[in-house]
Give the backbone structure.
Amino acid sequence: MGAMVYWVILSLSILALGVWVFWSVRGVRAYVRARGKRLVTCPETHCAAAVELDAKGASWKAFRGGNYFRLQDCSRWPERQDCAQDCLQEIETLGQGCLVRTIVAGWYSGKTCVYCRKPLDKVEEWTGHMPALLDPDQKTVMWGEVPPEKLPGVFENYKPVCWSCHIAETFRRVHPELVTDRPPRW
Ligand SMILES: [Zn+2]
């Protein structure tokens, strides 16, 4: 009898663990799908807005077996925090295509650094050394310094710069007294 109870408890524990793992995987997948800044066209203003889905809410709801599709942040908040979030339709249609990271990678694809001509479409380099930008005032800037909702203007007026040239140009700008330009030796 004792052994029987033991096996029943063990079987139930394994079953519970299996269900818990299944729910967790569902939650993690929902989190990964929802996270990240996205660029949408605001249905109210017809201008670009940077939004973020509530990834934690989506993950928790998916864990319990449901769908949660709401915003957590928008570049038009807090002024318009009570909007209808109609842009969610656009996000649903575009999926990962409206992720800022995807859009930026698409812009760099096929482009070369304006200084050294190095191709900038190797996505694996994105993990560490993000490519940068040359603004109309000839100053290089990092992507993090540009608000995502300004991207459409950036795509028109900025030029692509590789990470190494951005670091070199920034040093040259900040410490001009320490930089000596030598003619190239062939
Ligand atoms: Zn370069």
Residues 113, 115-116, 118, 162, 164-165 surround zinc ion (CB under 6 Å). Strands lie at 37-41, 48-53, 71-74, 132-134, 140-141, 159-161.
